[in-house]
Amino acid sequence: METLEKITIGEYVAKDFRTAALFSKYGIDFCCNGNRSIEEACHKKQVNPDDLLQEIQTVLSSKSDSGIDFNTWPIDLLADYIEKTHHRYVEEKTPILLQFLDKLSRVHGANHPELLEINELFKGCAGELAQHMKKEELILFPFIKKMVHATISDELIEQPYFGTVENPIAMMMHEHDAEGERFRKIAKLSNNYITPADGCNTYKVTFAMLQEFEEDLHKHIHLENNILFPKATKLEKDFSAQS
């Protein structure tokens, strides 16, 4: 912890851009005033430096889930994982990215008009993803869990009002395609998230966060399109064959 305390805010962000979200949460400027220590910045914002350092350590030590074999998971557990990992990720990062993109558009929009289009594209993505996730959390995922429970307890389930699970799944997959296309446009406009020579630290962090957001979205869509949805469809057909 003593070693961490000696690192400046700017050095933290350079080391791992994910720490920028923590500084933003506490209103600490990591861009123009990134040469300050944690202690100095926390004192001005009346933030407990030990709490912030602990959060930073958690971010720095967090690992990738690339080694997990999700295909072996029960689908109700997978649905919970998607909601608690990827849905929460979107909910946490979206307001920060909206704030950063608005700032970049104001400060750099004249010289980089593509930022204005990126900002509008991400705003559209934020709104659509929020609705998309609620439909999964309130409609699709509960029905998937109901099917799993019925399998375990050997019970019958009533046909849902949406007819078959394939209907909401088709809608979710269509919306996945739309957001994938939206991010392809963002990647192209940002030159694959490469910061221009005149870009500030906020510029660099925002593009890094956008790239991470896209990567997380790809994982999110993969888990649903390639694992959760096909297994849910098969489970429903197994129910129909038994009834």
Polypeptide structure, described:
There is one protein chain. This protein is mostly helical and 243 residues long. 74% of the residues lie in helices and 0% in strands. Helix 6 runs antiparallel to helix 7, helix 7 packs parallel to helix 9 and helix 8 runs antiparallel to helix 9 (201-242). Keywords: Cytoplasm, Iron, Metal-binding. It comes from Flavobacterium taihuense. Residues 84-232 form the Hemerythrin-like domain. Pfam families: Hemerythrin (PF01814), ScdA_N (PF04405).
Describe, in short, the structure shown:
InterPro entries: Hemerythrin-like, RIC_family. The protein has 243 residues and is mainly alpha-helical.
Pick out its properties.
243 residues; mainly alpha; 0% strand; elongated
- State the total count of DSSP E strands: 0
Measured distance between first and last alpha carbons = 61 Å
Query: Are there runs of 5+ residues with pLDDT below 50, and where?
Result: none
Q: Taking Cα atoms only, what radius of gyration do you get, to the nearest Å?
A: 21 Å
Please write the string of helix (H) and strand (E) elements: HHHHHHHHH
Biggest sheet overview: none
User: Roughly how much helix do the residues carry, as a percent range?
Assistant: over 70%
Query: Strand content of the residues, in percent?
Result: under 5%
Question: Shape from CA axes?
Answer: elongated
Q: Mean pLDDT, rounded to whole units?
A: 90
Estimated structural class: mainly alpha
Number of helices, counting only DSSP H or I runs of 4 residues or more: 9
